[in-house]
Amino acid sequence: MIKLLLYRFNYKYDPLALSDVFDGDGYRWLLNRQVKVDGQTLPYKYFEGKYDIALAFWQDSHQIFRRKSNGPAATPLLVKNLNLPPEIRTHLEYLIPLGIIPGRPKDFASFIHPFQEELVQLAYGVSAFNAAIQQTFYLRAYNIQNEMDIRAADKVVCNTSVNSFSPCRVCLIKGMRDPHAKGGYYCPLAHIYFDDDGDQLFSGDGQPVVKEWNPNELPYRSHESFYEIGKQLAQAETKKERKILRFQSGLNNYPVFNRVESQHHGRSTPYEIMHLLGLNIIPHLVEMWMGIYKPLKGVRGDYEIPHHIWREIAQETEDAVKDIPAEFIRKLGNIVQNRSSFTAEG
User: Fold this and answer.
1) Which has the closest alpha carbon to 160: 68, 242, 64?
2) What is the DSSP letter of 256?
3) Do residues 317 and 340 lie in contact, with contact meaning Cβ atoms separated by under 8 Å?
4) How far is it, in rounded angstroms, from Cα 156 to Cα 164?
5) Which pLDDT value is given to residue 282?
6) Residue 194: DSSP 8-state
7) Rounded to 10 degrees, what is the CA torsion of 186, 191, 195, 198?
8) pTM, full prediction
9) Per-residue b or e along 188-204, where b marks 16 or more CB atoms closer than 10 Å to that residue's CB
10) Across the strands, what pairs with 137?
11) Given phi > 0 = left and psi -120 to 50 = alpha, else beta, which region is 134?
12) What digits encode the pLDDT tens for the residues 88-104?
């Protein structure tokens, strides 16, 4: 086990490759920074010790029975040891369970408090014994990454989330909404400006005033900005002042993991492919193939798969699953009749 835990220390960084978290900007950024706990700078850097451990926090709420939205739910809290090789770090025997929250947490920070207390102790260092070389040393561990769905991630970073004016926890892109319609904000890469009355704005030469965002050069949030805005929110004297600041900045508070500054808060909680595609985009794509996608109601396209073929697909899938061991897949129903069991998490 000692040799396995040296994976991080022995990892060979290649600036032209991206093979693991240790190639990422978030981890590389930490290597040149002094450890900081509760605002106090300590006399050593992150991961300067051979045995320092990198951790990743993970949580994801789920419905227990048949994915019913109004049914009972649970939220497991896990920690992944990134010092282990990626081939085994997600195996059950190596995951560190912190607990299970019944339902979806409202005050998420309160459930994380015990773990954050442990992280503070681990940042200072805990005396440990290395049986391989018969020596004591200070064991230090840092939580450098959070892995979760968009809504949960927004609670950890404490940003205002999707449909808000400043929705992104990574960059400073601003949204807009149709002044003549109700609804949330969205973020087109180019949009016209409206005045307070909902009328389109024009420049002096009669051209529409347009805001454009270059997707390759978006202005990123800095690590320090999360603390600066958190401080401004705490010092705001009125509710109106806090409301305006939240609207403009897209942040509600300090990030949950704020005591040990081992995370670049603009990078440490990335958007991940399962929830972006598997849980959101693909279900809509299937609805389009079935001809039941609500925004395109009444519209027909050659991308639709005939209903009789869907019935065959559903029957063949249902018949095949019963012969696959439950260790590999859960029961899948008839996709024509009920799609709730067909998820990225299945």
Assistant:
1) 242
2) S
3) no
4) 17
5) 86
6) B
7) -60
8) 0.81
9) eeebeebeeeeeeeeee
10) 128
11) left
12) 999 999 999 999 988 87
